[in-house]
Amino acid sequence: LTVLNAGRRYLKAEDLSGKVFVTSGLGGMSGAQAKAAVIAGCVGVIAEVDEAALLKRHKQGWLMEISNNLDHCIARLREARKNKIALSLGYHGNVVDLWERLVHELDTTGELLVDLGSDQTSCHNPFSGGYYPVQLGFEEGKQLLSTNPGKFRTLVQESLKRHVAAINKLADKGMFFWDYGNAFLLEAQRAGADVGKKGANKTEFRYPSYVQHIMG
User: Which residues form the Urocanase Rossmann-like domain (predicted)?
Assistant: First the structure.
């Protein structure tokens, strides 16, 4: 319902075939995102750093394909988008790398490959394993979290700034992004990322929350 209503509200589209939804998280509640994309008929690319979560969703049939290669992900995205095939593709890697690759595609080809975007990392708990920084691999991140949590926190905040910078570039070209109620925008703001709404007070973000804006 969230993905369908985002399409209706932001894209003015009842039919989401050929549309691309990019997000992250295949763990607990976020595990439904892959299934949602296919039910809605769009192309869903969902990043997940934890291979165990990715494999679990694939084994359960909630996720159609898995890849750890960004070149392959972009090729499959383009193919499914062009042919209007419903697809859920799990990218085993950090979502920041995925967003930055989509910016690179926009910069080099002029092509905006994503229509809808969100995030379901556990940003309500970003410094205890809910969000892994793009600068490190998953295992390296886990090790740093246990040995130097202060450094881990700094890297998470740097990663959040990169995360938002990429989203902002794509949103400026017409992608619609929403907050999934996971404190992503709040933590990004605390990290110093550019998520404030122009001309509004500090408590307002440039991207809406799905609770009021989509489900409401």
Answer: 2-214
Where does the chain have alpha helices with state H?
Answer: 2-10, 32-40, 51-60, 70-83, 95-109, 138-147, 149-172, 184-191, 210
Band of pLDDT at residue 204, cut at 50, 70 and 90: confident
Instruction: Please state the domain extents for the chain.
Output: 1-215
Lowest-confidence segment of 21-25, 40-44, 202-206 by average pLDDT: 202-206
> Per mean pLDDT, which range of 24-28, 51-55, 145-149 is the poorest?
24-28
Given the candidates 3.30.70.1130, 3.30.70.100, 3.40.1550.10, 3.40.50.10730, the CATH classification of the domain at 1-215 is 3.40.50.10730
Q: What is the arrangement of strands in the sheet containing 116-117, beginning at the earlier edge strand?
A: 65-67, 87-92, 43-48, 20-24, 116-117, 176-177
What is the residue whose two structure tokens read 């926190």? 153
First to last CA, the chain: 11
CA gap 175, 212 in Å, rounded: 19
Cβ atoms 48, 73 nearer than 8 A: no
Beta carbons of 176 and 118 less than 8 angstroms apart: no
Which residues, in sequence order, are CB contacts of 51 under 8 Å at separation 6+?
92, 138
The residue among 66, 190, 44 whose CA lies nearest residue 117 is 44
Q: Residue 16 CA to chain centroid, in angstroms?
A: 18
Structure tokens at 85: 């095939």
